[in-house]
Design goal:
Helix content: 10-25%
Number of helices: 11
Number of strands: 19
CATH topology of the largest domain: TIM Barrel
Radius of gyration: 26 Å
Distance between the termini: 72 Å
Structural class: alpha/beta
CATH class of the largest domain: Alpha Beta
Bound molecules: beta-L-fucopyranose
Length: 485
């Protein structure tokens, strides 16, 4: 005879089964390709890096040296790289990129492949090495170290011929073997033209698309340091934002199709600025801009150092548009950041600290019109938990949604900071932000892309509720954080 399961036991089993079904983990959204690599993600999270332009130009007053400058010109009287790194660290920068060699060809390290370097300069009787000093200082002060090695070399006799490519590769090998980890390698777009060229004093034209054979060069560097990120107009890891005035695109896709792009290619600025929604590669835009009109120090520009307010605006139009800022601070003829530049950086830091002092969303209640799986997995609370690895999302077919942030009481709001969870691809292409006032919603911001970070500065309003309306997204949207100040 079959044993009969008592009725109560059956009911209990059914309830348990249902409860565990409700708790079944729901799969995270499928990645939307292309995706950032781990090293690109780390770069996004750095947000602010510094650029340092230093060479004989610092002593001649030029921006582009001709290549015939005497090494004797390079003679900083009080060079102190720790002054640079300490200033940068306390201003909030995470990495530093140094012009190891600019277009004039003078090397800030004693390269064994040329005499046109610090070894022939009076500085430290020719025994100095700025690259080494800076890489050590960066390590001591917890900054990542990067190098700029200009492909165009107006000093080298063989520039324009195959022999120069060997020289250039040898120098890369030297830098990547003897100077510790390099997080970013910067290739600028300036290519060929007039110069000294070992005394030839002529104009040399090269074909920017083929002369350098970049794939081979980059592979040889990757073999030594696979973690390095390559910047050039068109990547392969980071792209130029298309201007030198500190503005990323209001629409800023991290994706672009780079097959037909190369460093120095004319008239691609617009595309580099906005990226392309259907781009096939993850190549985010970097915003390089100088604290002064020029890239190198010139005393006549001491009165033209950007103010803290201007630097803060640049922060909003670079980091605040989903890019990383690369701010140039050129050392002066002493080999120090000038007092005016230091003061501007300190003022900038102060502004960042006061403007983003207290995140009002940290204690707010977040709700959403829809979420994926159970609330504990992809619910709206993930948006205000302060954790970059958690996010809110919807089910696959839901591509529009509204997230509501209730501050609990009237608060003055000046900034709204949105962050997409880009590890699974950049998705959102249209959104608005509203605040509630006297029972009605009032739109205060609208945009296309969000990306790693989007910051809106709005006319200050007093409100209890803010909402983000995601109107269009390439796939189900993913928001990692919303902060309100
Ligand atoms: C450009 C160069 O020509 C400028 O001198 C500067 O180095 C800037 C960052 O990149 O391509």
């Amino acid at each position: 005879m079959r044993k009969r399961i008592p009725y109560l036991l059956t009911a209990a089993l059914i309830l348990c089964a249902r409860a565990s079904w409700a708790q079944q983990p729901v799969a995270p959204p499928a990645p939307l390709l292309p995706l950032p690599t781990e090293k690109q993600m780390a770069w996004h999270e750095m947000e602010m890096n510094a650029f340092i332009h230093f060479t004989t130009n610092t002593f001649t007053g030029r921006e582009w040296g001709n290549g015939d400058e005497s090494e004797a010109l390079f003679n900083p009287t009080a060079l102190d790289v720790r002054q640079w790194t300490k200033t940068l660290k306390s201003a909030g920068f995470k990495g530093v990129i140094l012009t190891a060699k600019h277009h004039d060809g003078f090397c800030l390290w004693p390269s064994k492949f040329t005499d046109h370097s610090v070894k022939r300069s009076p500085w430290k009787n020719g025994n100095g090495d700025v690259v080494k000093e800076l890489s050590i200082a960066c390590e001591s002060d917890g900054l990542k170290f990067g190098v700029y090695l200009s492909p165009w070399d107006r000093n080298h006799a063989a520039y324009g011929q195959p022999a120069y490519i060997n020289y250039y590769r040898n120098q890369l090998k030297e830098l990547f073997t003897n100077y510790g980890p390099v997080f970013e390698m910067w290739f600028d777009g300036a290519n060929g033209g007039s110069g000294y060229y070992g005394g030839a004093n002529e104009t040399r034209k090269i074909n920017g698309a083929t002369y350098y054979d970049w794939p081979t060069t980059l592979d040889s560097v990757r073999n030594i340091q696979p973690q390095v990120l390559f910047f050039s107009d068109a990547g392969p890891d980071l792209r130029w934002c298309g201007n030198e005035n500190g503005t990323a695109g209001l629409t800023n896709w991290n994706t672009i199709s780079n097959d037909t792009l190369y460093a120095g290619k004319p008239r691609i600025e617009g595309l580099l600025n906005t990226g392309a929604a259907n781009g096939t590669k993850w190549i985010p835009a970097e915003v390089d801009v100088s604290i002064r009109p020029g890239w190198f120090y010139h005393s006549k520009e001491d009165t033209m150092v950007k103010t803290p307010e201007r630097l803060f605006q640049i922060y909003l139009s670079s980091v605040g548009r989903g890019s990383t800022l690369l701010l140039n601070i050129p050392p002066d003829q002493r080999g120090l950041f000038h007092e005016k530049d230091v003061k501007a950086l300190q003022g900038f830091r102060k502004l960042l600290d006061t403007e983003f002092k207290k995140n009002l969303a940290a204690k707010a209640k977040a709700t959403a019109t829809s979420f994926r799986g159970s609330a504990s997995m992809f619910g709206a609370a993930k948006i205000t938990d302060g954790k970059k690895e958690t996010y809110w999302s919807t089910h696959d077919e839901v591509k529009a949604a509204t997230i509501n942030i209730n501050l609990g009481r009237q608060q003055q709001v000046k900034y709204i900071v949105l962050q997409e969870y880009i590890r699974l691809g950049q998705r959102i292409s249209s959104f608005t932000v509203d605040v509630k006032q006297a029972g009605d919603w009032k739109q205060v911001a609208e945009g296309t892309t969000i990306g790693y970070k989007r910051i809106f500065k709005i006319d200050p309003v007093t409100t209890t509720e803010i909402r983000l309306n995601i109107k269009e997204s390439k796939a189900c949207p993913l928001i990692s954080e919303i902060a309100i100040y």
